[in-house]
Amino acid sequence: MSSPQEPPSNPSSDTSTDTDAKSHFHAHITTLHSLTSSPAPLSLLLTSRPSLAAYTTARTSLPPSILNHVTRAFLYALSHAHSAHPDPPSSSFPSTANTPLAAFLHDSSALVQLYAAAMLHDLGAACSRSGQRFEVDGADAACEVLAASVRGGGGGGDGDGDGGGDSGAGGGDGGTGGGGERPLATEAQRREVWLAIALHTTPHIAERMGGLVGLVRAGVTRDFGAFSVGHTEEEGKDEREERERVEAVFPRLEIEKVLGDAVVGQAVERPGKAPRGTWPGGLLEAWRREPGAEGVNAAF
Questions:
Q1: What is the pTM of this model?
Q2: pLDDT at position 33, please?
Q3: N or C: less crowded end of the chain, CB within 10 Å?
Q4: What gap in Å lies between CA 16 and CA 195, rounded to an integer?
């Protein structure tokens, strides 16, 4: 197995492709809006540089099955935030910004964080930058993309106003959506995204951290047929109907096999990327037991 190459850190900086990137992004957000019943103002993402950069990076770097998965994970994370699940106790391994779940439905900065983290959470499966786990590689790459976007070079938002300046009078600011600090403009905001991506395969800890970290974990586990800690009932009627509706537009395309093979492919070349006791490590051990096995990795 061979590892995919590192994705570009600034995928839509070429002016000749900027219009095409925005067109794809607008169509994507329109589709998401049609699939969710959450009150989240998804239209605010359209003026967000980090959101466009996240989508463009995902679209140009990930295979279709993984792109569909990260999109479904975002939609399911929104549903989780919109449902009646209580936030975890604030004393339980709180993240540096343990945002209440409701904020991700109403606060534009939190919504942009969630979108970026969900869309880029498997970026490490498409790049092999170091000897670290794919989750850490992906978190590092994602934060580089987002930092570039808020500097004005990472496939920005529409920039409504005088040329889409970074902020202030007349310029699109990357999408605050009305007051408050610019989404993902600070190191602390991007660190939350880093944590959400780095911990998305880590059960129990991610859920207990709450905020963005727990919400991304909830979206990911929901897509793979499980619910986060604290929500143990089987899939209900509403959840089943939502899944069927979402998968009709964003089909699975053998995601379990594609993602498992991508992670193992990197680990075969660089075993340090799959330390024992981790999700990549379990996949590698299962592959070593049956290197010629067909289908989905037994440890997925």
A1: 0.84
A2: 95
A3: N
A4: 34
